[in-house]
Every structure is written in structure tokens, then in C-alpha cells.
Amino acid sequence: MTDQNGQTAIAHTNIAFIKYWGKADLTLNLPTTSSLSLTLNEYYTKTRVEEADEDSLLINDLPQDGKRIHQFLDVLRAEMGDFPPLRVISENKVPLSAGLASSASSFAALTAAVAKFNHWDLSLEELSRLSRRGSGSATRSFFAGFAIWEKGDKDENSYAHALKTPDLPIALVVCKVSGMVKKVSSSDGMRRAQTSPDYQAWVDESAKQLDEMKAALAAADIKKVGEIAEANALAMHNLNLTAEDRRFTYLNQETVKVLEQVKALRKQGFIAYATMDAGPNVKIITKKDQAPAIKEHLAKRFRKIQFDIATAGPGISYE
Q1: What's the gap between Cα 13 and its chain centre?
Q2: What is the DSSP track for the chain?
Q3: Closest listed residue to residue 99, CA positions, set 210, 174, 18
Q4: How far apart are the first and last CA of the chain?
Q5: Global pTM?
Q6: CATH of the domain spanning 7-165, picked from 3.30.230.10, 3.10.20.30, 3.40.50.300, 2.60.40.420
Q7: For the chain, which terminus, N or C, has the lower number of CB atoms within 10 Å?
Q8: Sign (positive or negative) of CA dihedral 211, 212, 213, 214
Q9: Could you tell me which of 119, 172, 136, 154 has the C-alpha nearest to residue 19?
Q10: How many angstroms separate the CA atoms of 158 and 178, rounded?
Q11: What domain of life does the native source organism fall in (predicted)?
Q12: What CA–CA distances, in Å, run from 29 to 33, 42, 67, 199?
């Protein structure tokens, strides 16, 4: 039984403090490491699905190549049983392909909308597992606040779950260095990074950092959270520079200048630590009461960069 009138779901994007950067299984989208993220209130995707003659996709009212969506919907059909072709209508409040995890919120919202459309009675963890086949990072966007994606070693045990933490006064200053579509996709970037001679060392260190991050969050130590997240992110980006298969970088000159200012802010006494996903944009981890001053400091020095403040966001919701 399906909902003939369609169904809408809203998922917020997330920023990984311990990164997902590498696949152990390409078909199942199993990661080489577990990862930990914070769901963000300010960036989200609203997706509606309606019965149609064929699978199709609109993003922000513009028709898109629906191949990836069709392939993902076919995965859901194979897993859960057949359902009609769907028109997917997506309103994205996240810059696409710029390292702000637009695919995470997009595939989380799509998975949730399809499940509701088909009246599947699934837990958040089950939805998380299904969404992984569309986007690994989507697994974490079903949960409010902090979430951990357990890497697992097979389809059944690779999914995310909520991480209970004290109420942290944490915020991110988001530096939109560029909104351009990146030249190296996340999937291709991961594949190349895994050819780095340093890759296994990064995997091993990431496991230790995940344990350290959980302890820092439990202690509500935002400074320590920032230190660990920055170390993990910089090491991830160094893998790209040392890839044996066509080394590359997502960072540009403005990114580097912002990172220099982050160090300067720390010398001034601010809690300020940088993290970057697959793109040039910098997210600065800080405390809520320090975020406005950091934003003002940077805005004076970088006139062409847009700065926003992001806070902890909610889990999946429906309209």
C-alpha cells in the first residue's frame, strides 16, 4: 500500500568531526572507518515523493539527471519490495557539491519520504542503513545532535545511531569560501586517497580519535572536541596530497588563509578549530557565545567570503 498523495520528509545535513573518507566495499558503500558527526540546524533538504510514470528528480524546481536517484530507488525496491515510479521533488537549503554534505541530507530525506510513502514501519537505525546505499554520510542525518556511523563489516551492521551527550553550547562558524561544484567528486576523492601510503595509518589513528572524541563530548570539553576534529580533518586532506593515483586537494588559497586566521584566533584566546569535508569551505568549531565575535573578526578580513553561524540540529521530520 502506498500514499497516493505523496509524502514529504525533511533531513538536516551533518558535519563530520571524525571523517568518513574511504570505502571498504563499493557496492554496499561500507566505510573503512566509523565516523562521528553533528547534525546542523541551518542546512537541510525537504524532499517530496509522488507517484509518476517514471523515476525523475527536480532540485530547487530544476530538472536533474535522475540516474543516481533511479539506481537508489531500485536498491530500495530490491530490499523492501516493489513500489511505483516516483517523482522526487527536492528543495535543498545546502550548497551542492561544495563540501557541506548536501548528499547526506538529500538521501536521508529521500529514504524517509519513500519509507513513509510506502508505509514501511522502520526504526531510525533501519532507515539509516537503507540510506547508506545512496550516500554514506546520509546515515548520520536521521539523528538530532551527535551521531556515530558504525562502520560494520556487512550490510546489516553498518548504520548510524544517536550519541547521547551533555547539552553542549557548541556552534560552527561556516566559511563559504566557494559555492562552485568541486572538480573531484567525493567518491573519486576517496578512491584516490586510499592509494596514499599513509592511508592505513590514518584509519588506525581515526579509530583512536573516535574514542577520544566520545570522551571529550561526554566531558563537555569543546576545546578538546575541536582539537581532535581539526587533527582528523587535516590528516584526511593530507591523504589527498599524498595519493599515488593523481594527488589533489580540495583546499584553495582562501581556505589556507582562513586556516591561518583560525590559528590566530586561538592565540587571541578563542576556542576555534577548523574542519573541512570534501570541498574548500571551512567550518570553525567554537562555543555559541564566541561564534559572533569570530564571525565578525573573519568578515572584516575576508570581504568576499560569506560567514554563517550553525548550531546543533534536529533529526528527521515529516510534513
Answers
A1: 6
A2: ---TT-EEEEEEEEEEEE----EEETTTTEESS-EEEEEEEEEEEEEEEEE-SS-EEEETTEEE--HHHHHHHHHHHHHH-----EEEEEEE-S-TTSSS-HHHHHHHHHHHHHHHHTT----HHHHHHHHTTT-GGGGGGGSSSEEEEE--SSGGG-EEEE-------EEEEEEE---SPPSS-HHHHHHHHTTSTTHHHHHHHHHHHHHHHHHHHHTT-HHHHHHHHHHHHHHHHHHHHT-SSS---S--HHHHHHHHHHHHHHHTT---EEE--SSS-EEEEEETTTHHHHHHHHHHH-TTSEEEEEEB----EE-
A3: 174
A4: 19
A5: 0.95
A6: 3.30.230.10
A7: N
A8: positive
A9: 136
A10: 32
A11: Bacteria
A12: 12, 27, 17, 18
Q: With contact defined as beta carbons under 8 Å apart, do 258 and 298 qualify?
A: yes
Cell numbers found for residue 205: 589513528
Asked whether the beta carbons of 19 and 35 are under 8 A apart, the reply is: yes
Residues of the chain with pLDDT > 70: what percent? 97
Euclidean distance between CA atoms 266 and 45, whole angstroms: 33
Q: Compute the chain's Rg from CA coordinates.
A: 19
pLDDT, tens only, 155-188: 999 999 999 999 999 999 999 998 777 889 999 9
Give span(s): CATH 3.30.70.890, the chain. Answer: 170-311
Distance CA 264, CA 127 (A): 42
Separation between Cα atoms, residue 28 and residue 139, nearest integer Å: 13
Where along the chain do the CATH 3.30.230.10 domains lie?
7-165
The average confidence (pLDDT) of the chain is: 95
Amino acid identity, position 209: Q
C-alpha cell of residue 224? 578538546
309 within 8 A of 36, measured Cβ to Cβ: no
Amino acid identity for residue 166 in this structure:
P
- The domain over range 170-311 is classified in CATH as 3.30.70.890: yes
